[in-house]
Structure prediction request, 249 residues.
Amino acid sequence: MQSNLQTWLESTGLDERRAQIYLTSLSLGEATAGEIAKRMKMNRTAVYDNLRVLEERGYLRTIKHGKRSVFVPLHPKELYKRMDNQKEQLKDLLPDFMALYAEAGQQPFVQLYTGPLAAREIYEDILRTVKEEYLYFSPPELTLQTVDRTYMKQWVERRVKQKIHSRSLRVASKNVKGLPVFTEEANYLRSIRYLPAYVDLKSSIYIYEQSVGIVSTKKEGAAYAIHSPDLAFSLKQLFEFMWSVSMKS
Prediction:
């Protein structure tokens, strides 16, 4: 069991020695550097130096009992909570990291999102990165299968506020009736044209800046953010051709 715990701690960024010190401290509950060193059969100074590093990184804290200092490890539940918070923070920052990576080079990469909120990742990425306009193939009916109406209405309002225009190629038979926020053009900075009646779509495809976003069906529950200047360029050319031969209503 201890080896599994140590492997996990090392995966969080601790080296082997500090992971061992944390686990020893955890088994003692509350101990001085000397007590930990004695248990580990290590030099007290070396243990003390590593305890200070663990304290700086938030794995334990020091409590004073008069002139005596004891080290108390972070409770496993608190450690889990902290790691979980860091994971959520990384998830929020991931698109920014991806954008920074994209600016640094032309290497393509793909980010897969899964779960009930997968589609939102693409929509949020569009708002973060688009400067003027994005293009997409997607009937509103399909969009509303992957995100709820309230979110989508608010998202469109945010897009308009940022003055981001859109052009969409849609399937006429899958249009949403009576909802201006999805169908009105001028007030929502969008232009709409329709694909031939025999064309159907089961995924939404968004082309924005040097990226392509693909939102699958609710059944599959997946979305893909693809950074590829060449792919984005090629799909833009295909979109423009289809736009030129599509119908306005």
